[in-house]
Predict the structure.
Amino acid sequence: MSNTQGDFIWYELMAQDADAAQSFYSGLLGWQFADSGMPGVDYRIGSKGDSPVVGLLSLSEEMLENGAYPQWSGYISVDNVDDSLKKADDMGGKLLMDPQDVEGVGRFAFVMDPQGVTFYLMTATGDTSHSFAKYEAADGHCAWNELLSTDPAAARRFYGELFGWEKVDEMDMGDRGLYEMLRNDDYLVGAVMPKPLEAPVPLWIFYFRVPDIDAASEYITSHGGRLLLGPVEIPGGEFISQGLDPQGALFAIIGKRLTPA
């Protein structure tokens, strides 16, 4: 099955210390890293088993001087990057990095939605992506994409018109507002919710699956990271934790509780 419009097809971590980031996430999520072979840049491919799932980009001094910082970003598939850029611009989005082509990989551009959330548009030419586990749970793969937005209704319109995502369900979280589930094609791609006051900026949070939520959460704190939330139970009986890795990049994990608390 090939990539389709609106799929999350890649996740990328920008890190100031790529060796330290590789060590942290290898232990947490079981990723095995290899150099991408891209000339002039330290870019590593993290795989789970036979599936490439994430990229790791080492931030150069020039990138840091221009305001880059450790963070996770998602790549969303489009049929044509340039057409999608024009559409995003017409709806109030902003181009942050001009389109680029990587031989054997595809064409991509870095953009910002009208509420200030960044993501990549990409038309991939390589193999079908399995980074996001669309249909079956898979340890070490992304399991959920969550948008914290300052204007969820406007965000739904923007992403809906750009990618074809549709709202299919909602959950009332009380004073935290509505948690609105979004579908792409025939599967749930993620959700949008109001940005909590404690979140410094609107952003995407990516949830990676672990086999044991308690062991993984303990790993985060014992290896230099910090838990911001969790583990807490979610509908369906699984648990989530949100945290910062040792370099300050925000991410989340999801999994089962193997031993009752």
About this structure: The chain has a mean pLDDT of 94.
